[in-house]
Amino acid sequence: MNDRIKSLLIYAAKVATGTIIVYAGSLILHYKDIAWCLISVMLVLSPDGRESVPLAVTRIKANIVGACSGMLCLFIGQTNMWMMATALVVTLSFCYLFKLDSGIRSALAATIILMLHEEGKHVWDTAIERVIAVLAGCVLGLIITFTFHFKSQYQDITKAPRIDEA
Predict the structure, then answer these.
(1) Which residues, other chains included, contact 140 with Cβ-Cβ below 8 Å and sequence gap of 6+?
(2) Distance CA 99, CA 164 (A)
């Protein structure tokens, strides 16, 4: 089987696993608003197996930056086009500051997820609920990534030259 097809099948298995776990978890916890958790899982997963674990960690850090930026802007004022734009620029700036370039899109998505809330719902209840959903999705995505790529990550570590051999 060629590497491209193998990569596609592994990525499809990760995506399916994430979807099934989120849906099963929502049934067990009686939690219906799974969209944000599911989106976060998909943003953390990556089709490339070589750098999948470090990339997942970077995307989690970026999601945390995005969630914090969104919370900060919600604290400052009501969500409108100006505040949304400000939150996204703040998120982008912090990602560059913390050298999370490969996770910027995930961070921007987390900011948008956090700042958009349904009319009539209390802003802070929705924001905190979404932060938890985003973080849960990120952690789940990391666990799935680590599980699927543990063998290749372990082989990379064992192939590295030992200090006493150098």
Answers:
(1) 18, 21, 22, 37, 40, 41, 44
(2) 33
